[in-house]
Specification:
single chain, alpha/beta, TIM Barrel, eight-stranded parallel β-sheet, 8 strands, binds 5-O-phosphono-D-xylulose, binds cobalt (II) ion, Ribulose-phosphate 3-epimerase, D-ribulose-phosphate 3-epimerase activity, cobalt, isomerase, carbohydrate metabolism
Length: about 220
């Protein structure tokens, strides 16, 4: 099943409740937590995630771009948070952290920066509910999609199919109605979009346009 998760990174933080209402037809909302250490940008932390969880009924997908998620990630497994994603590059023991997140009722997800290979994740694929393949360098919205990340998606989807496990594959960075079908054809099924949704006058219409872009075209060989 295709899922569209707008990222509020490009929303109007002063009118956030309004901007959340504008994406009511989405499948989830993606919250980018950045600490100005793991990535060179600073956004918000737990108090903001807690408040958003109070005002939206959309499942929340937290993307932690922070140092030491082994220490901090569990705090984000609160009511309303569907999945917590931590970066492989920042985590000491990804399997232990994923198990703890699951024990707290959150779906556990691991993210890979563009320069990070899939090998370690492939070895422990059953431990994760979702893998996030970054299609830009994490830190900022509005960057260009990296099609060279597609083999990672193909490899992950292939291994999940071999193992017979349900694995969500998320892509984040430069997703538009043009790039989404490329990622979908490579095996992605959860699509994060910031500027493609909130960089336009009508985020509801853009969310709908992304969903249409994800629908298999007649005659295509899409999954
Ligand atoms: O994690 C990140 C950026 O590091 C994202 O979730 C951005 O919000 C994506 O923005 P666009 O590339 O869609 O504008
Ligand atoms: Co993100």
């Amino acid at each position: 099943m295709v899922r569209i998760h707008p990222s509020i990174l490009s929303a109007d933080f002063v009118n956030l409740e309004r901007d959340l209402e504008r994406i009511a037809s989405a499948d989830g909302v993606h919250l980018d937590v950045m600490d100005a250490h793991f990535v060179p940008n600073l956004t918000f932390g737990l108090p903001m995630v807690q408040r958003i969880a109070e005002v939206t009924s959309l499942p929340i997908d937290v993307h932690l771009m922070i140092d030491d998620p082994d220490t901090w990630a569990l705090q984000y497994a609160i009511d309303g948070v569907d999945s917590v994603t931590f970066h492989a590059e920042a985590t000491r023991d990804a399997v232990a952290l994923a198990r703890e997140l699951r024990a707290r009722g959150a779906r556990a997800a691991i993210a890979l920066k563009p320069g990070t290979a899939v090998d370690d994740v492939l070895e422990h694929l059953r431990e994760f509910d979702m893998v996030l393949v970054m299609t830009v360098e994490p830190g900022f919205g509005g960057q260009s999609f990296m099609p060279e990340m597609m083999p990672k998606l193909q490899e992950l989807r292939g291994r999940a199919d071999e193992l017979g496990i349900e694995l969500a594959l998320q892509v984040d960075g430069g997703i538009t109605a043009d790039t989404l079908p490329i990622a979908a054809a490579a095996g992605a099924d959860v699509f994060v979009a910031g500027s493609a949704v909130y960089g336009h006058a009508d985020p509801a219409e853009r969310t709908h346009a992304l969903r249409l872009a994800a629908a298999p075209q007649p005659g295509s060989l899409d999954r």
